Amino acid sequence: MQLIRREPQTSMAGGTRSRCPVLLLLLLGVTTARLASGVVTDGLLPNGNFELGPAKSDLNGTRVMNQNSVPNWEIFGFVEYIGSGQKQDDMILAVPEGACAVRLGNDATIRQKLEVIRKTTYSITFCAARTCAQAERLNVSVAAESGVLPIQTVYTSSGWDSYAYAFRARHSTAWFSIHNPGHEDNPACGPLIDFIAIKALNPPPLAQGNMLRNGDFEEGPFIFPDTAWGVLVPPMSEDDVSPLPGWMVMSDTKVVKYVDAAHHAVPRGARAVELVAGREAALVQDVRTVPGRRYRLSLSVGDAANGCEGPMAVEAYAARATLRTTYESLGKGGSRRAAVEFEATANLTRVVLQSYNHHMKPDGTLCGPVVDDVSLVGLR
């Protein structure tokens, strides 16, 4: 199997490296993360789009044969270097941006050493696509922290989804890795990986008159400017660091989608959350309350102007109160505001938001209502 044609680049070792057109960074307009010159900054990791590839002598067909062949990365196991439009049997392997990506086959890992600021919380955003495996998942880890991201469900018509993972830096350096734990009869059957970026998360202070942290969802994972599908925030345990500060995603395998105003209709501000998994995933935040005191929970519910049509309903729970807000979506944007009052029954009250139904766009991809501007205030 032949890779698409690339211009050779002379390496320091005197060989040639595969080089895809490096126009992506210009299109993105983001600051590239740096290793050699210091702490990583918001944006793509070094060679985070895999446009710089291995020397031809380090390839056996598409398989990368040496641990350090892909610039800025270390690889282990069955890793392939893939060109956009390349075929596997009857499958065309597309790449979300640029011309190249990597594929993680059986028990394969890619990793990169990051220089970070201790005690700072970071989120990693990366694009992944299923290929021919049946139950694909990825183990993502930074230093001692790790999480399993289920990627069986595809949320975009292109087949590529962006995922977020967060960690808190314990030291000034950390190894970031993505591992495919699968073992298929065809060792090449694993997910494609591309477009890996980092962002330092700044825990937002409580807004005046709102007891919820990040109730407007303005702080969250890196969203690639030239991708229109948002970022999936996976389920997490209560001990995990959330890429959506203040909020947890409670589910077995499903996610919520973090969206931006550049590509979606957002009720307020620049960011919001689309509930794309029906009742199988919920946004959760715990907040300190005074038993016996009354509170008001309010939120905006709408649609993302992404063609998701029909009656949408969001249920919100707090203490013994339930609020169901219905919004009739035409798929063109818009929102409505709703509120419920309740009496706290404990020192800690859990606020839960979830979509009442499953929704699907005409192209078969999952979608759902958008929630934004969630507020909790105490009443006299």
TrEMBL record:
One short Pfam family name for this protein? DUF642
| Main subcellular location of this protein, as a coarse class | secreted
Q: Which residues form the DUF642 domain?
A: 43-199, 211-376
Q: Which residues form the signal peptide?
A: 1-38
Q: Where in the cell is it found?
A: Secreted, Cell wall
Q: Which Gene3D superfamilies match?
A: Galactose-binding domain-like (2.60.120.260)
Q: What keywords were assigned to this record?
A: Cell wall, Glycoprotein, Secreted, Signal
Report the SUPFAM superfamilies cross-referenced here: Galactose-binding domain-like
InterPro entries recorded: DGR2-like_dom, Galactose-bd-like_sf, Pectin_Meth_Modulator
**PANTHER family recorded for this chain?**
DUF642 DOMAIN-CONTAINING PROTEIN (PTHR31265:SF54), OS02G0527500 PROTEIN-RELATED (PTHR31265)
Query: How is this protein named in the record?
Result: DUF642 domain-containing protein
| Gene label | LOC103646275
